[in-house]
Amino acid sequence: MAQSVSVNDEWYRNSYRKLFFDYHNYEAALNIASRFNAERWADQLEQAHVQAVSLHSYCNHGWRYYRKGTTGYIHPGLPEGLDIVDEVMKVCQNRNIRVIAYFNVHGGEPMDQYHPDWILTNEKGEKSQGVVSLFSPYFNEFLLPLLEEFARNYKVDGVFFDFLRADTPDDRHAKQKFVRDTDKAYPVSPENPSWNDYIHWLLEEGKRLRMEAFDALHRGNPDILTSVNWSYSYLQPEIPPDNVGFLSLDIEPEDQVFEASFIAKNWATLNKPFDIMNSAFLQWWGDWGIKPAETMKQECAATMANGGRTWIGYQIRPEYFVENALMDEFRKTFDFVMEREDLCNGMVPIPDIAILNSSSGLFTHGPTLHLYNEDLQSLRGAFKMLMESGLHFNFLNEEVLLKKLDQYNVVILPDQRYISKELADALRLFVGNGGSVIATALTGTQDNTFKSTEEYLLGDLFGIKLDGQYTYDHSYILLKDERLKKDVLDMAQQAYGQCALIGTTSAQVLADLWEPLLMKDGRYIHLSSPPGQYTGHPAITLNLYGKGRAVFLSNDIFYAYAHRSQWNLKNLFKNLLIIADPERLIEMDAPGVVEVVLAKKDNSTQVHLVNHYREKALGVANTIVEHVLPVTGIDIKVRMDTTPASVIQQPEGIKLKWKYSDGYVSFQVTNLEIYSIVVIE
After folding, report:
1. Residue 166 and residue 97 in one domain
2. Which of 91, 352, 513, 568 lies at a C-alpha separation of 20 to 30 Å from 488?
3. First to last CA, the chain
4. pLDDT tens, position by position, 171-207
């Protein structure tokens, strides 16, 4: 594998106001760059307070927009002599605006015409039009020389890759290389014995492809920062190597405030600068409408509050211009960002609650293996539940969790079915020393080949044993412990999703598991059934282990919350967390639309507050907000070792009334518009 090379990323860490513009043009597109004017474009960027901008160099239709070099295909419609990359790069850098070249490695139209043998072909012999296989000669004979040549000729500040990934298992080129590399049987389909090995090989090959692409760029220019769209995200929880300059992805469009926060909480612990690319489209890429600045402010707030930077995506018309009215919405958004970026730059989330998002989750759910984890409801449900409960938390992969475990107070394992022996031993030590762990469903019941062991690896920690599989798609939780009943309706609580039948060895039972009532033919009464009878098994247990506490839920309540918005489960979990960890680091009394992040910056403690207020969208429309309704009367308590000197709500500059008692500083934020940061010094 290629060698990892560390690159100076200081300029990127300071770049909070970035714009990304698509410029994908079919060969048949008319008027390519007919209105191109580099100075006018730089004027527009400068007026919008832009610090860095993308520069479309190689589009997804396979055309390049630069002249220097011999590899690749210049768009046939590009005006004679025009080099968009060179001209934009020079005028932007003269104005201290950084440029990040965009490279789409999909293949595009020229590959269909000139290299049909490189096109991705599946097991049926069907070709994917315009899409190359990275395991064909394309990668070594075309892409790597192209990248090195580009980096030598154009001194851009960064390169952002799209589709640089090995995520298509049904690829003949990939399968043939797998056989050559391993001498194993050709993996026709997931039913083949070698399919397991093939998927693991693909994951490693994906790492190799990224590293070799980065190294090709760095041979041409060692100072280029590199990034790959969606790599190292929650779908691919790995530690990014040194030669990855920054992390970035374009989030799904439906609710980009939610998505920005969800992804940022996965990246904030990786010690890499990152941005979340929210898009300005009313729909998504390819749309020509634009969101109001108010919506984009919320999206940027969710990113910044969790330690990220902003990169707003849109597109340039084929003639190469963007209307001033659109740029003004970006200016309004970046004015908002500018007021807060100095407060955010250098902030680090304080460890408190860790949710494990293991890379083994790629393999533990479902009958077949896949490269990108599609079974994310447990993780997303955990995020939604904790965020709406006013809790501060982050997602960690197993490598980061092992390194930082002793810094956290609570670890949550949402149906994480494979737990390594190393992590299991670390969790036992963590709880023994006073930490708390909460797990659900089938956590720790698979071996390293992702086969069921029919037992809990951490059974001793939780004081439970696996008695069997629960057969229905929903179950009921009947609370026994009075501490769990606050703000929970006095009735059995329905929970959809995975459930296990457990027995206790040393744990205390806090709630019982009930199965649904069935008709005499064994079917549900309606879509589901009401509670039927007690299964004889617990739903929730608590085990005292050393100085700590271990809580187990036989249901995957996080999946259930995502699947049905069962609000009683959210309140139940809040009560359960108080039992597991009674001395919380931060407590907040606010509506569920308020996200809280506790952070350190220099010698100050920060409480970041983001208003997630949303307006209902109809049909296929995505969520936008024209007017964010403020939230009032937010009461907050933060554990502090010493009496603070001041508590100030920024950037408003409001000095808040506060009191210090029993190791907590208490205050109230009387009005939250979109995003405020309470600075405690």
Report:
1. yes
2. 352
3. 47
4. 999 999 999 999 999 998 888 888 888 888 998 999 9
Residues 461, 579: one domain?
Answer: yes
* Pair (475, 569) in one structural domain: yes
* Co-location of 598 and 664 in the same domain: yes
Domain count of the chain?
3
Question: Which residue shows structure tokens 């043009």?
Answer: 25
Cα separation values, 34 from 29, 92, 203, 271, 327, Å: 12, 20, 43, 43, 20
Q: Assess whether 191 and 255 both reside in one domain.
A: yes
Q: For the segment 532-564, what is each residue's pLDDT rounded down to a tens digit?
A: 999 999 999 999 999 999 999 999 999 999 999
Q: How far apart are alpha carbons 275 and 14 in whole angstroms?
A: 12
Model pTM?
Answer: 0.96
316-to-24, 322, 323 alpha-carbon distances in Å: 9, 6, 9
Note the helical H segments in 154-292: 172-182, 195-220, 256-267
Averaged over 58-74, what is the pLDDT? 98
Domain limit, last residue, from 527, 551, 584: 584
Residues 665/637, Cβ–Cβ less than 8 Å: yes
Instruction: Determine the residue type at 263.
Output: I
Q: Strand, coil or helix: what is 300?
A: helix
The CA-atom distances, in angstroms, between 226 and each of 39, 68, 241, 283, 318 are 26, 21, 11, 28, 27
Give the domain extent around 257.
10-346
Instruction: Please name which of 168, 284, 178, 166 lies closest in space to residue 231, comparing C-alpha atoms.
Output: 166
Query: For the chain, give me the number of helices (H) and strands (E)?
Result: 17, 30
The domain boundary, picked from 294, 319, 346, lies at: 346
Chain segment 289-312, per-residue pLDDT in tens: 999 999 999 999 999 999 999 999
Same domain, 327 and 370: no
**Domain co-membership, 547 together with 569:** yes
Q: Could you read off the pLDDT of 202-255 as tens digits, one per residue?
A: 989 999 999 999 999 999 999 999 999 999 998 887 889 988 999 999 999 999
